[in-house]
């Protein structure tokens, strides 16, 4: 009876979703359920090859799809793609106007990752959408803009004069190996954003959702706003002056030495380490730790 009910529920779900379900008896008297579309996409043949593609002159990169991408900054230009031999034609690369576009043309199914390695003398902009990984090493002093949408895990290393980072979704950006000047960053969603060491004039930070941001270093001014249940962990970032505001149940921790404007709106809290002489505080959940 229980099995019949389960099968009926599955059949109803299938009709509503517009998909086909196959029910297969197993050896233990139960059933195994699968979808005829469960393995959609081109199946990799398991024969891994490396393909060298023509070098391109681009200081910006746009990545779409389930790719493992490594960008090495500071070397002569080069482009390499690795994966199952029958899937490599589906990994498309195109360069024009200083922008390298990398994407997967269609759906693929393989136990081997599709890998792209790009070397470039300079990198100033990254646009990333989807899942997978992105590793950038050797950043060499220029300004960098990063926009990440989706669940991709991004790692950054080197130094940049200015950083602008936008993270949307459940992905992560880890810049523990990065040193940057003035920084503007936003996190929307449940992701994690590690800004690494910030040594510059200013940090501008906007957090919305349940995600978390942390940073270390030293700046003159800091402007931080947290909406929702997210957090900004900035006790390791020394600031001369700061404006810190929470809306909702989120939290901010920061270190401020001279001038402070702090406001807690809702059940969230603001914790400040230091003894700033100029203070403008509102909300009962603002705490100074000397």
TrEMBL record:
* Span of domain Putative auto-transporter adhesin head GIN: 59-194
Q: Which organism is it from?
A: Duganella fentianensis
Q: Which residues cross the membrane?
A: none
Domain of life, per UniProt, equals Bacteria
Q: Does the keyword Signal apply?
A: yes
Which segment of the chain is annotated as a signal peptide? 1-19
Q: What is this protein called?
A: DUF2807 domain-containing protein
Q: Which UniProt keywords apply?
A: Signal
Q: Name any one Pfam family assigned in the record.
A: DUF2807
Matches recorded under InterPro entries:
DUF2807
């Amino acid at each position: 009876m229980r099995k019949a009910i389960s099968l009926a529920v599955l059949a109803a779900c299938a009709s509503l979703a517009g998909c086909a379900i196959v029910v297969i008896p197993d050896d233990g008297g139960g059933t195994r359920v699968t979808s005829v579309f469960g393995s959609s996409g081109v199946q990799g043949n398991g024969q891994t090859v490396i393909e060298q593609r023509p070098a391109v002159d681009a200081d910006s990169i746009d990545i779409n799809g389930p790719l493992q991408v490594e960008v090495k900054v500071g070397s002569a230009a080069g482009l390499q793609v690795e994966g199952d031999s029958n899937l490599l034609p589906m990994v498309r690369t195109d360069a024009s106007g200083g922008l390298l576009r990398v994407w997967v043309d269609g759906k693929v199914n393989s136990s081997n990752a599709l890998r792209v390695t790009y070397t470039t003398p300079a990198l100033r902009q990254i646009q990333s959408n989807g899942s997978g990984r992105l590793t950038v090493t050797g950043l060499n002093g220029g300004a960098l803009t990063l926009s990440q949408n989706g669940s991709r895990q991004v790692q950054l290393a080197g130094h940049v004069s200015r950083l602008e980072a936008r993270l949307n979704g459940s992905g992560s950006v880890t810049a523990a190996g990065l040193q940057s000047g003035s920084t503007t960053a936003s996190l929307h969603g449940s992701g994690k954003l590690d800004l690494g060491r910030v040594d510059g004039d200013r940090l501008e930070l906007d957090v919305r959702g349940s995600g978390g941001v942390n940073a270390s270093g030293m700046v003159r001014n800091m402007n931080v706003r947290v909406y929702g249940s997210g957090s900004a962990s900035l006790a390791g970032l020394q600031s001369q002056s700061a404006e810190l505001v929470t809306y909702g149940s989120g939290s901010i921790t920061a270190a401020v030495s001279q001038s402070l404007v702090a406001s807690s709106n809702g059940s969230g809290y603001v914790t400040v380490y230091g003894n700033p002489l100029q203070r403008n505080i509102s909300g009962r959940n603002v705490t100074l730790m000397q």
